[in-house]
Amino acid sequence: MLKKLASDALGLSDIGKVIEPQDYNKTESDDYVLHEKGEQIYFIIKTKSDEYCFTNLALIHVDGDSAVSKKRTLRRYDYKYNRIRNVSLETAGTIDLDVEIKFTIGERNLSIDINKNFAEKIKDLYKTLVEMERMMKENEKHSKYALESLDIATRSISAAGFNQTASPADSFKSIVEFSNQWLTDSSKKYTTEDFGNVFDLFIKN
Known about the structure:
By secondary structure, this protein is of the alpha+beta class. The chain contains four helices and eight strands, in the order αββββββββααα. The chain folds into two domains: 2-118, PH-domain like (Roll); 132-197. It has helices at 2-10, 119-160, 168-189, 196-202, and strands at 17-18, 41-46, 51-55, 58-64, 72-78, 84-90, 98-105, 108-115. The relative contact order is 0.13. The model is unreliable at 1-12 (pLDDT under 50). Residues 145-205 form the YvbH-like oligomerisation domain.
């Protein structure tokens, strides 16, 4: 017990390891994966107190208070609603025991220390997250263009006046319906929910 407490106090207990695919079903986070909806695990990092489970749809974080506590908080970050930003990787020095991967998902900043023996696998995760960040930036840019295009079109129609063959109410209704459909289609087009193809490209299991 004293060794565990000392390790926790020194932060050594937070150095994680990469879980092999054959052991995914032995992790706590596996219980919260939406297998029924086609969600699948691609990468798990496990420390004494936490689990970071990367699926094709979300990051599932089983957040522990400490290495000696059994209390856990489950947090799910769907990629569809939580953009990944600021991805970085700190490689191990000569005497370092770990590598460190950092990124922001939604409003949450995460910093994960992993045993340097798993450095090659972490490089694959790093490349995956970098590509996801790039895709999300592109989606955000094109979504902004779609909104600007709709705004320009709406102002142009307003300047030209409503359709004279229809009542103002019918013309207004047509514009609202078109705008709603445009925004719905743009959202579907420029929002990526499933990043399985990106994980398949970079993660080598």
